[in-house]
């Protein structure tokens, strides 16, 4: 499917854009007359921890080109954005030699000589969610280069993951449980208490857009509290155990006194035994000396 091109008039040039669909991707093409064209995907989806492919095909005004070719990918902005990947092929028989590869995450999956500079990003993290721009350079001539202006948005998703779960105490919230989970879409979260009753949590947003924190205030029951995080990619649970400390009083105080009394009696018995052993030892020594 191809939409009608939208012409934009520039001094002495005609620049047209069109949106095309190839192999399930929505591509944006940029054409300078019939000389240059780039075909890139407008949006690409990936999952945290996995890989994603960013397609980019190009055509140039030359019937053949056997000299140097350079492929460049940058992020955030076209033309002056940060370069995250670059490879160079000096001749038609040379492979593309990587000269820039940020964090060693990028891999050329296309073939420069086949007009394909598509790349793959490995082990995706939240920081990889960005807009990417591909660029091809045929020579040192500044007019023999072309770069996409629209770029490709990389959107990331992730199943939920419990980042932290704990119990704390303060005067305003009493004993309270805190659970932080991340995912994309941001997960919904519920708590279950030791009697498997659903508790109403207090939601607090965090600084990261893909994280959510819930707090359960004034814990009443001893036992296991479970935090459940759910989004369209799955569900995960995390648990924390809580037992209130009961101050000594009543029967507990009597038990404490009894324990101290038992320990005191054992210490007294040990002291008496030590004294008896010492007394008899001195007596035997005195008898031995008198017999001599």
TrEMBL record:
<dbReference type="InterPro" id="IPR013106">
    <property type="entry name" value="Ig_V-set"/>
</dbReference>
<feature type="transmembrane region" description="Helical">
    <location>
        <begin position="254"/>
        <end position="280"/>
    </location>
</feature>
<keyword id="KW-0472">Membrane</keyword>
<dbReference type="Pfam" id="PF07679">
    <property type="entry name" value="I-set"/>
</dbReference>
<keyword id="KW-0812">Transmembrane</keyword>
<feature type="domain" description="Ig-like">
    <location>
        <begin position="11"/>
        <end position="150"/>
    </location>
</feature>
<feature type="domain" description="Ig-like">
    <location>
        <begin position="160"/>
        <end position="241"/>
    </location>
</feature>
<dbReference type="InterPro" id="IPR007110">
    <property type="entry name" value="Ig-like_dom"/>
</dbReference>
<dbReference type="Pfam" id="PF07686">
    <property type="entry name" value="V-set"/>
</dbReference>
<dbReference type="InterPro" id="IPR013098">
    <property type="entry name" value="Ig_I-set"/>
</dbReference>
<protein>
    <recommendedName>
        <fullName>Ig-like domain-containing protein</fullName>
    </recommendedName>
</protein>
<dbReference type="InterPro" id="IPR036179">
    <property type="entry name" value="Ig-like_dom_sf"/>
</dbReference>
<dbReference type="InterPro" id="IPR003599">
    <property type="entry name" value="Ig_sub"/>
</dbReference>
<dbReference type="InterPro" id="IPR042836">
    <property type="entry name" value="SIG15"/>
</dbReference>
<keyword id="KW-1133">Transmembrane helix</keyword>
<dbReference type="InterPro" id="IPR013783">
    <property type="entry name" value="Ig-like_fold"/>
</dbReference>
């Amino acid at each position: 499917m191809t939409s009608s091109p939208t012409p934009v008039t520039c001094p002495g040039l005609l620049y047209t854009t069109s949106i095309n669909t190839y192999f399930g991707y929505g591509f944006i093409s940029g054409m300078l007359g019939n000389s240059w064209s780039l075909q890139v995907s407008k949006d690409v989806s990936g999952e945290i921890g996995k890989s994603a492919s960013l397609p980019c095909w190009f055509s140039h005004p030359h019937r053949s080109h056997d000299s140097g070719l350079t492929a460049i990918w940058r992020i955030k902005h076209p033309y002056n954005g940060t370069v995250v990947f670059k490879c160079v092929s000096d001749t038609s028989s040379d492979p593309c030699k990587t000269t820039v590869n940020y964090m060693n995450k990028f891999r050329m999956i296309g073939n420069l000589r086949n007009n394909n500079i598509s790349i793959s990003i490995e082990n995706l993290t939240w920081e990889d969610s960005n807009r990417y721009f591909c660029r091809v350079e045929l020579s040192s001539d500044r007019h023999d280069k072309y770069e996409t202006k629209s770029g490709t948005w990389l959107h990331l998703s992730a199943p939920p993951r419990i980042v932290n779960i704990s119990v704390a105490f303060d005067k305003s919230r009493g004993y309270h449980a805190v659970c932080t989970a991340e995912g994309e879409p941001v997960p919904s979260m519920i708590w279950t208490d030791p009697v498997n009753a659903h508790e109403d949590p207090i939601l607090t947003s965090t600084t990261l857009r893909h994280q959510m924190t819930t707090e359960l205030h004034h814990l009443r029951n001893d036992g296991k509290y479970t935090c459940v995080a759910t989004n369209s990619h799955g569900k995960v649970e995390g648990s924390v155990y809580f037992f209130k400390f009961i101050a000594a009083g009543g029967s507990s105080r009597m038990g404490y006194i009894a324990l101290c009394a038992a320990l005191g009696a054992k210490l007294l018995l040990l002291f008496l035994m030590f004294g008896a052993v010492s007394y008899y030892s001195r007596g035997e020594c005195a008898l031995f000396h008198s017999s001599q």
